[in-house]
Amino acid sequence: MNKNILKSGVQEFISKKKSTDIMSVLLKKQYFDGIDNKELAEQIVAREKCQKKLPTWFNSKEIYYPNKLNIEQTSSETTAEYKSDLVSGKSLIDLTGGFGVDSFYFSNSFDKIIHCEIDQELSKIVAHNYLKLQKKNVETINADGIEHLQKSTEKFDCIYLDPSRRDESLNRVFLFSDCSPNIVENLPLLLSKCRKLLIKTSPLIDVSSGMRELNSVKQIHIVAVDNDVKEILWLIDKGEETEVAVHTVNFVKTEIQKFSFQLDTERQISTETSEPLTYLYEPNAAILKSGAFKSIAPVYNLKKLATNTHLYTSKYKMDFPGRIFRIQKVIPFQKKAIIKEGIKKANVTTRNFPESVAKIRHRFKIKDGGIDYLFFTTLSNGDLVIIFCLKE
């Protein structure tokens, strides 16, 4: 951590530059004594990445930024604040602290936070930034979180960790047992040290396989921002004897879309199917990831187009956590019928359909965009159709 970067003149220089200026910064002779131009460039790029994702850090003075990869991998303030509302108590330990955004927000719900980070440089950066952000109830420790937990005699109200989802060759992994730290292997240790355990994973981990590996989850939270699933949260609560509840949330510009259901209910419920009626509904990404394909229909008084077609329909317009379309017409998926329509430009989506969007666009020369939405899908009788819609 180069403290020369924190000098007022340097900070003013960094705040005025944009990532588009990086090459000019790198190619100029050294701007400041004791600071390499590459270091300046890294600060400029990392800071700019925080503007929307981490506005508290971006708008605060004398913040020191790590490399851009640390910024890309950290939680956004939106998702960090959401998870901080899930747990509370006297003490929480964050075993994989990173840039410290999650610990920052957990500190609003706990009296004491311990932030463990194995990278010495990053740990120093986080400690400095907490001072500037006036976070006084977070203790930063430069240590491997699991090793620290093994040595500690302290027990916590909650343990939080965000395991690495890449192996030694930097390939993505999809099981808890392949993460680092190995969640399955360390589960007895983790549960012996806390009342609640909260684990963050990427959307790539399959919900069903995750349930089998952990075997004691009480809540699953699937969090999306602007219809893009960012993380899945797994909460184990030793004091809670309830069925597994799945909560989905999608933060969009004008609203927060929420939908919750019980896993057992989803397995047992049956849904009615229908041909396309007046309105078509497409669940948001968090709901689609959750697998709430049957539970959502009766809640909003909808019918599915087919058992394996995760699109819904109704005669009258309903409030819905996803996109709503008004159906204009339905035609069979036949070359002559499609050519007759003269489609030149449209937004194309496939659901339970044998051909990809790319293949359909190429085959029928349909450009992307416009106000028309085409859903290529399968009805309950097996017919392949195209549903022409306008967005509500």
TrEMBL record:
One MF annotation (Gene Ontology) recorded for this entry: methyltransferase activity
Keywords, in A-Z order: Methyltransferase, Transferase
TM regions (residue ranges): none
Keyword rRNA-binding among UniProt keywords: no
One GO term (biological process): methylation
Domain named PG-1098 ferredoxin-like: residues: 279-321
UniProt protein name: Class I SAM-dependent methyltransferase
Native source organism of the sequence: Euzebyella marina
Organism taxonomic ancestry: Bacteria, Pseudomonadati, Bacteroidota, Flavobacteriia, Flavobacteriales
